[in-house]
Specification:
Blueprint lengths: L3 H14 E7 L5 E6 L1 H5 L2 H18 L5 E5 L4 H11 L3 E4 L12 E2 L7 E9 L3 H12 L3 E10 L4 H6 L4 E7 H6 L1
Parallel strand pairs: 3-4, 3-6, 6-7, 7-8
Antiparallel strand pairs: 1-2, 4-5
Helix pairs in contact: 3-4
């Protein structure tokens, strides 16, 4: 059950970013609706409250986390907002290691054994989140918790659980659709 403030935030996200039509999702699935995360992530009046809410949820879910992480490109603005709200440093997880400079897949400072809470935008099948978890774990980091803005409830939570990651969301897609 959402609080009044959460329902209001869900309504604002819907008004800004919920689209109906014919869309192909990252997973390859077709959908009659789409949540355009860039519409809510690029609006400071939404990004601020979302960042604060994610920070509170991340702290409750993973109070021992040393830092946060967000996959590029979609979650970078979110993880920066959560970092500012929580005071925790963050990492950017690249889709692939860059071919120049440090040639790293992770940007930011981290040390083997650090606990990392993953921040995500919209989770459908969990593919992007799983790739980020793999990269974090490959660098010797511990990632067992993830928080997203919206869970479309299409298998992502279960896919993450299969890899030992607990996912919590601010909203389910239905919360956005009916707000």
């Amino acid at each position: 059950m959402l609080t009044h403030a959460e329902r209001e935030l869900a309504r604002r996200v819907r008004d800004c970013a919920y689209l109906e039509g014919d869309f192909v999702l990252r997973s390859g699935r077709r959908s009659p609706y789409y949540l355009d995360k860039y519409r809510f992530e690029t609006q400071p009046d939404l990004l601020g409250p979302i960042g604060q809410a994610l920070a509170e949820r991340a702290r409750a879910l993973d109070p021992e986390a040393h830092r946060l992480a967000g996959p590029e490109l979609g979650a970078v603005a979110l993880v920066a907002a959560v970092s500012l709200a929580s005071g925790l440093p963050f990492l950017i997880v690249r889709k692939e290691a860059k071919g120049h400079g440090t040639q790293r897949a992770l940007e930011g400072l981290a040390y083997p054994g650090d606990r990392v809470c993953l921040i995500e935008d919209v989770v459908t099948s969990g593919g992007a989140a799983l790739a980020a978890v793999d990269a974090l774990r490959g660098a010797g980091l511990v990632c067992e918790r993830a928080v997203c803005v919206v869970d479309r409830e299409e298998g992502g939570r279960e896919a993450l659980a299969g890899q030992g990651v607990v996912l919590e969301s601010l909203f389910r897609l239905e919360d956005i659709r009916v707000s």
